[in-house]
Every structure is written in structure tokens, then in C-alpha cells.
Fold:
Amino acid sequence: MFLFGHRRWRGESGTSYRFKITLTEKGLPKDSGGLYVFVRRRLGFILEPLYVGKAANLHGRLVGHEKWSRAYWWYGATERHVLRVHTETDRRRIEEDLIRGLKPPMNDVMIPTSGRDAPSDPKLRWRWFERNWRRLAAAPKRA
Structure:
């Protein structure tokens, strides 16, 4: 049972991202941009992602995050996982990959529901079509 350290989250593309587990405000990196995941821990070792987000300043964003109280009280969030990413384009790409792969309940945008929901990033789009080409070929064509 790890209450601190690192945890890997896998996106829809199959890429694994290594997040740092933070239980308190002191564990948040200052003056650094990146991604964060609100997580619910069950039975000590089962982790469920609740929300995936990105920020230009992780400490400034997570200290007063508007969804944390809902994640904590309604969904039972116990911790935050953070990943430092320096460029905005990489943050957008990784966030979309993780949301589409993890399908967290508090994220209602970018979760695929049909064949028309291919990723917007070209690299992710190519991998998505590679994985779903059989399902897309078997689907009836619309006029």
C-alpha cells in the first residue's frame, strides 16, 4: 500500500504517465505547470481517477480548486496526483489522452461516445484509428 511516491496512469494511446502522489498542500510543486488527477482510494490499494485537469501553475490552481470540494464530499476523493509538464501543447495532448483513457466521472468533455469522437491531436488520432478500424469499418454508413 503506497500512500506516497508515484503512480502511473495510462492514456487511451497506451502511453503511461508517472504522477507524484500528494496528500497535502505542501506536496504540490510551486511555480510549475502540469496535470493533476483527483483520486479516490478504496481498500488502501484500489485507485479510481475522478477528475483530470491541467494548469499553468499547479500550486495556485489546486489550493482553491472549485471541483475539489465536490470530489472530496460527493465522490470521496482522498488525494491528488500531479505531473509536471512545461509546455501548454503537451499539457493539452496528455490531458486529452488521459481523459479519453481513464474516463473519469467528473470530466464530461472529451470522453468518447461514438465513432465521430476521434481525438483532436494528430498523434492520438492516428493511434485511435488504428485501434478502432474494425469497429468503424463494420458500422453502418450514414447518408
